[in-house]
Write a structure and sequence with these properties.
Distance between the termini of chain A: 54 Å
Number of strands of chain A: 1
Shape of chain A: flat
Helix content of chain B: 10-25%
Radius of gyration of chain A: 20 Å
Shape of chain B: globular
Helix content of chain A: 25-40%
Number of helices of chain A: 2
Strand content of chain B: 15-25%
Radius of gyration of chain B: 16 Å
Largest interface: A-B, 41 and 59 residues
Oligomer: heterodimer
Order of helices and strands of chain A: HEH
Largest sheet of chain B: 8 strands, mixed
Structural class of chain A: mainly alpha
Structural class of chain B: alpha+beta
Strand content of chain A: under 5%
């Protein structure tokens, strides 16, 4: 990458490290609670990550009706 | 229901894919579900074309985003046959929809179910066990930095922005969790998977749950 792009990635990485420390502050370090760290997305600012990878939209669906049987393999 | 169940153990889950810079998570999620249900019905496990869904699902916007339920609705209404991945390769950008002749091999869905199951994750377990892997949407903002373990915090319900596939669950430990296949490659998370705590609608995992029938 060019110098500008490199600096941008460096800044994003610094921000990622701060964010990761905050996320891990609730972790008990027991390998059960989620743990966070540097990965393939750490060079992206959160807004960039969201714009690329988080593009799914919600769709209004009905609340599940408890009376529908799920005992068999047939759909309701 | 068994205390622990994962469709991967039945060899009906295809490998973890990588959506690259395409915002087509919604297509990866439902195609994964179709592949598995097709295999659960006794057919050979095949990879079907995610690109076909991205290009052809007119009620979504390809790599710019979409909805799992809208895509399932389109598949159900049109009875489009999904062709093999090798016939319609993933290229990580939206393209023109390719059409295939009726005689070409492909699988179409016969129906789907989509529900809000918040507060009823026990029902989700039954659906998963009886019907196959479930396509769900989640809040994945904090997943940018996820490496492993069970996600229990830093996630919201009602703020979905990503689609994934639940392949199993494990209730044998102190924290029961869903086993979730992502589409960010095998280097992300636990070999491409995440574990999410069950029972509290963590990340909104129960807000929009879809099952497919082929």
């Amino acid at each position: 990458p060019g110098e500008g792009e490199g600096k941008k990635k460096e800044a994003a990485l610094r921000e990622s490290i701060k964010r990761i420390n905050n996320l891990n502050s609730l972790s008990s370090g027991d390998n059960i609670t989620a743990f966070y760290g540097i990965n393939q997305f750490s060079h992206l600012f959160p807004e960039e990550f969201r714009a690329i990878y988080l593009q799914c939209r919600a769709f209004k669906v009905p609340k599940y009706n408890r009376e529908v049987s799920l005992e068999g393999t047939e759909k309701p | 229901l068994p205390a622990k169940f994962d469709w991967r153990d039945k060899k009906v889950i295809t490998q973890v894919r990588n959506q690259e810079t395409c915002g087509g998570c919604w297509a990866f999620s439902i195609v994964g579900a179709i592949e598995s249900v097709y295999a659960i019905k006794g057919n050979v496990l095949e990879e079907f074309s995610v690109q076909q869904v991205i290009d052809c699902s007119y009620n979504n916007v390809g790599c710019q985003g979409g909805s799992t339920v809208a895509a399932l609705s389109w598949l159900n209404q049109t009875h489009v046959k999904l062709v093999k991945d090798s016939e319609y390769l993933f290229k990580a950008e939206t393209g023109l929809c390719h059409y295939f002749s009726r005689s070409d091999f492909g699988v179409s869905i016969i129906d789907y179910a989509a529900y809000d199951l918040s507060g009823q994750e026990d029902k989700m377990m039954k659906m998963l066990f009886h019907w196959g892997p479930l396509a769900v949407i989640v809040d994945a903002v904090s997943w940018q930095d996820y490496l492993g373990g069970i996600i229990q915090h830093h996630c919201s319900s009602g703020e979905a922005n990503h689609a994934v596939l639940i392949t199993g669950y494990d209730t044998t430990g102190s924290i029961p969790y869903w086993i979730v296949r992502n589409s960010w490659g095998r280097t992300w998370g636990i070999d491409g998977y995440a574990h999410i705590k069950m029972g509290s609608n963590i990340c909104g995992i129960a807000d929009e749950v879809s099952a497919v029938f082929v």
